[in-house]
Amino acid sequence: MLNLDRIVAGVGALALFVGAYTAEIIRAGIQSIARGQTEAARSLGMTATQTMTHIVLPQALKRVLPPLAGQFISLIKDSSLVSVIAITDLTKSGREIITSSFATFEIWFTVALLYLVVTSLLSQLLFWLERRFARSD
What is the Cα–Cα distance from 4 to 10, expressed in whole angstroms? Predict the structure, then answer.
């Protein structure tokens, strides 16, 4: 058996879970770039590394930004799952306050509001980034 600290186990589990989805999103974004883009860059004498960094990745970044935004927002919401292994997060803190104050609805509404604020701010930031990248089209 592994003797891992709770925080290491929680962060590791979330990192593996989100890392797999993120890698798939990025792979799909890179593969979505037309082969002609790569061929044109290579015909201009660019190396494979130059082609990837100057041609393919900038275009792929614009395409993967919306699904990556959704994935990161989902990560914030999924972080409440680590409370199952006794890591103190927003949900676990809410449960602890409820047991001492018996203010169930007020605490859950506050927790929900905090999650809403965090995810809304991240959504706005990513919306701004998408608009900024769209200007270069």
Answer: 10
Whole-prediction pTM: 0.69
Sketch the domain layout of the chain as residue ranges.
Answer: 6-134
CA dihedral sign of residues 88, 94, 95, 100: positive
- Fold of the domain built from segment(s) 6-134: MetI-like fold (1.10.3720)
* Chain length of the chain: 137
What is d(CA 2, CA 76) in angstroms, rounded to the nearest whole number?
26
Residue-wise pLDDT for 8-30, tens only, equals 888 888 899 899 999 999 999 99
Sign of the Cα pseudo-torsion (114, 116, 119, 125, in order): negative
- Residue listed under structure tokens 């935004």: 69
- Quote the tokens at residue 91: 């949900």
Alpha-carbon dihedral angle through residues 129, 134, 136, 137, given to the nearest 10 degrees: 160
In whole angstroms, how far apart are CA 68 and each of 27, 105, 123, 126?
12, 33, 11, 9
